[in-house]
Amino acid sequence: MTPQEAVKYYGSRLTEFERAEIEKYSEIWYLGLSAHKIHGEEVSSQNGGYDDENGSYNKVLHDHISYRYEILEVIGKGSFGQVIRALDHKTGQHIAIKIIRNKKRFHHQALIEVRILEHLRKKDLETNSQHNVIHMLEYFYFRNHLCISFELMSHQRVYTYIQSRFYRSPEVILGLPYGTPIDMWSLGCILAELYTGYPLFPGEDEIEQLACIMEVLGLPPEHIISHATRRRLFFDQKGSPRCVTNSKGKKRWAGSKNLSMALRCSDMLFVNFVSRCLEWDPKKRMTPDEAMRHEWLTSSSSSHVSSSSSAIASSTVNASANTTTTSVETSRESAHLPQTVSVTVSAPRQRATTMEDPPYTMYRLYKGRKYVQKVSTGTDVTDNGGGLMVKSKLNGSASSHALASSTQTATSRHASTGDIVASLDPNLDDSGTFLPPIL
């Protein structure tokens, strides 16, 4: 069909932009009349409305590419653009089309790719051989996008060993088909680790990894076991899990604990969110869209604001508590004797706690010969009214000189905790920063 014939018979179903655009083509094979077309405008931003803010083409399913190809689905995305599966209405074949982003730097890089692929294609034709290199069919421009068409390859997966072990989904471990739900599994594992500070499923190898999962989630459904290509590694002929003992002599039993116990968490919304991520069946696993609508996320903002307000209102903070002061007490009998240093740090605002909250423990980190003993609430900490007093020991004459110099300036300036430690000993190669509280 010629462009003139297309406009004559179907012009009323084309957009105004298309009626002008179609004149540039010598042959018309497909018009995409059933698609919900974008009404592009020459003067509007983002390539007449055909691009998004990143310069990627706004594809419309069943619309046309160059009045020849029908867009069927998106099969890949990347930094350079997107790849679609399309039907070539001229040849009747399904092909892949890479649509490069409408940005200069990506366009220049894609031209290099085109030259390489063109060279390989010519060499294959000259030698009448196949070298297992994907063949470019042709390249063309459509609405300011460089497009490269390829033969459509199969969806055979080359890699089966993916994901870090602690966050590896059951379908990958068991050798089942996998897809994007494996990322939701990893999200659940990472959230649990962020909450507790420890991996939720810390398997030493894949066999113990699945045992760790079954310990919390119980046995997988029968249909998952029966379709698993690697089930013999983990289950006997009766479908029972093989006995696993790790290097520390620990055995794990399926269903011996639940997720709340493993998380040590009483927030049922959080536990439910994690459990939805950790479904055995990837089809039942929570999707990203469902996660964004989950009550744990939708209610987090408001509850965080209210709890923070309550904590601030209930705390009594003196004006002097906004600054950090230091007091250094040293015995000047001998510069070579161990010195005792008292560092007073104003108490920070504390969050509201409940009876279920475990006591916090703080550590001060030093390197070399310097050290500070473990500090626990109610044992090595004394309250001066203005803050917590932590006593530590610094050995050596270098410490004594540092103490003497810090005595002169401690009361005349305010400093952060890191500055205080640095002033105590210039030889410290670590800042002495307080580590986060350990539950």
From TrEMBL:
Q: Where is the composition biased (Polar residues)?
A: 337-353
Q: Which UniProt keywords apply?
A: ATP-binding, Kinase, Nucleotide-binding, Serine/threonine-protein kinase, Transferase
> What Pfam families does this protein map onto?
Pkinase
| Keyword Nucleotide-binding in record | yes
User: Does the keyword ATP-binding belong to this entry?
Assistant: yes
Show the GO cellular component annotation of the record.
cytoplasm; cytoskeleton; nucleus
Question: What InterPro entries is this protein classified in?
Answer: DYRK, Kinase-like_dom_sf, Prot_kinase_dom, Protein_kinase_ATP_BS, Ser_Thr_dual-spec_kinase
Q: Name one GO molecular function term.
A: protein serine/threonine kinase activity
Family designation: Belongs to the protein kinase superfamily. CMGC Ser/Thr protein kinase family. MNB/DYRK subfamily.
Q: What is this protein called?
A: dual-specificity kinase
Organism expressing this protein natively: Lasius niger (Black garden ant)
